[in-house]
Amino acid sequence: MIRLSNVSKDLGEFTLQGVTLEIDRGEYFMILGPTGSGKTILLETIAGIYRPDTGRVFINDRDVTDLPPRERSVGMVYQDYMLFPHLTVEQNIAFGLRWRSPRSGQNGRGVRELAGILGVDALLHRYPGTLSGGEQQRVAIARALVVEPDVLLMDEPLSALDTKTRERLRDELLRIHSLMKTTILHVTHGFDEAFLLGSRMAIMDRGKVVQVGEPIEVFRRPNSRFAAEFLGMGNLFKGDSVLTDGLSQIRIGTTELVSVVPLEGRVHASIRPEHILLSLDAIETSARNAFSGPIQKILDTGTILQITVDIGIDMTAALTRRSFEDMALSKGKTVHLSFKAADVHIFPAA
Amino acid sequence: MNRLSALKIVTIGLGFFLAAFIVSLLACVVTHTTPAALLHSLASGEIRFAIRMSLMTSVISTILCILVSVPASYALARYRFPGRTILNTILDAPLALPPLVAGVALLIFFGTTSLGKGLSDAGIRFVFTPQGIILAQFLVNMPFMFRILRATFHGINPRYEYVAQTLGATDAQAFWRVTLPMARNGLVAGAIITWCKGIGEFGAALMVAGATRMKTETLPISLYLNMSCGDLPMAIAAATILIALSITSLFLFEKYSGIARVF
Predict the structure, then answer these.
(1) Global confidence as pTM
(2) CB-CB under 8 Å, A100 with B181
């Protein structure tokens, strides 16, 4: 469990402003935010690298605000691995056991077991410089977990990896979490990661936590303009996908969407509002997704308007003010929506 | 690019000309006497004394430079504190100071102030002693060690230490087990250049320690003394050893200095 109560820290370039956050024991919690939003300094403040200017930090009900990092029982994993280059993989993983009293009785067992769990047991005698990015990050995770920390803090652990490696390690993280039951705080800027891994997530903006909730809730109901814009103003649905002729047909309630992403089973489907064409009459188009329904809601955000249409599900399209006025739209009016199968993004639902 | 351009010919030619100039200068010194005379001089008590004195003083002053520069450069690379900028400038200053001036300053400080006199009465004498040579080398060469190490520490991401600290290390243990080993190349490069400069140190040492035959006679002092009294073979012997040492350390420095830059 991690509890932050009104934590502020000013590092000049990066700040935290009155962050209050509660993460349950054993939870996989995601923090999402753009560069410079204070995600890393939040992690490093929890780790004890920085002492907050105001506020308190609790780990498992223990006030750790005034404790040095080594007494906090936290593990740290960075985007750039930070493996000690002068030590072998085995020595890197064993680093945290060096300061353990031999009587605690878990030396020796830990290194090989963790290396096995992370699949790096064949690399124990190599030096970090000779490993691939994915292998290095596995070693870094093993090194952090060997001391069995109460909390594992990960700062964009997958961002430096190529797509394939990232997907594989992402699945590994889920497996490790269910195996070790460690509380995990994972910082990312990728939505897919947040959805697949997090049971809950927080969105950060300029040193503040602006929204906390289950990923799908946050995505569907962003509570601020920042969150909405950052998340891409969500058309996000959960449904069942079946492959037909290489295309995915996703059934969401009574509505069926078509996507070019081949994927079967429970999926999330998302369509960006600006990819949806809104018209008064049905139009001939190559787009495979065409629907019609009454306007539910009109949200004015300045030059762009968000028009929500009931097509069985609530689908939001973005429209310029000019088009909006030309079409003389109003609530209840029936309109047509169409979008390409290539613009329907789907990814597996956890 | 295969065409012969005037610019290409002139610049490459100048490079070769400079190299030829340097090589002939060195060759001139080394071949000035006969090999027999050179060996005879090298075997003389005076040259052997000078070699021992040079090695002893330069090794000790290099160790002192390491002991002081490691913590000082780490502090200036890692921490933000009031007075940091001015401290950086002052610690670099001896680099720009003429060694003779540094030597005069040391002479006045340890020869005329009450602190210097007190130390002298307590048996710690720097004026006209080998200790003075060590002190002179330390003062003049410390900035080299300091600058190389500061750049080295600066180039090591502090997050390595953060990770070590979350794994149970104190900040001092994290420095000792992680940052210092990672600074190895910079440390070796700095030690080589500091030692090499120590071997060649003349001006500051001359002012503090004087040039006394068989007492404060390092290789450069020996070269100077023997030149002054016209004993060319002895002077050449000292010069030959200095050339050999510089070339060796230059190669070692090139090997280790990949990650450290002096300026």
Answers:
(1) 0.81
(2) no
